[in-house]
């Protein structure tokens, strides 16, 4: 498997981040995300606002950074709820540039 430069520091490793920059989510960060999803559900129900597509029903909502950490966002920055597939599309498009 070819080595890839770390998104944060550029050091080559087997992943998109070197061991020093692996995504490590603290318990606090996980519960912050869970709360963001719960608040979104309470307000909108199982509804994804959509990423580069129309809003749609979704029961696999996840919360992620409005500006991903890989794109210069802060780990404690604001969160946005999207379904899993919209979230991963958003992440892919931002991390690929
Ligand atoms: Zn790194
Ligand atoms: Zn979606």
From TrEMBL:
InterPro entries, alphabetized: HNH_5, HNH_nuc
Gene3D superfamilies tied to this protein: 1.10.30.50
Pfam family, one: HNH_5
Domain HNH endonuclease positions: 58-95
Descriptive protein name: HNH endonuclease 5 domain-containing protein
Species of the source: Kribbella turkmenica
């Amino acid at each position: 498997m070819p080595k890839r430069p770390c998104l944060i520091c550029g050091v080559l490793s087997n992943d998109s981040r070197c061991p020093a920059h692996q995504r490590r989510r603290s318990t606090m960060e996980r519960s912050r995300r869970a709360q963001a999803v719960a608040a979104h559900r309470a307000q909108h129900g199982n509804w994804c606002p959509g990423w580069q597509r129309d809003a749609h029903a979704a029961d696999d909502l996840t919360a992620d950074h409005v500006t991903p950490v890989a794109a210069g966002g802060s780990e404690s920055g604001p969160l946005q709820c999207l379904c899993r597939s919209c979230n991963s599309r958003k992440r892919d498009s931002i991390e690929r540039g």
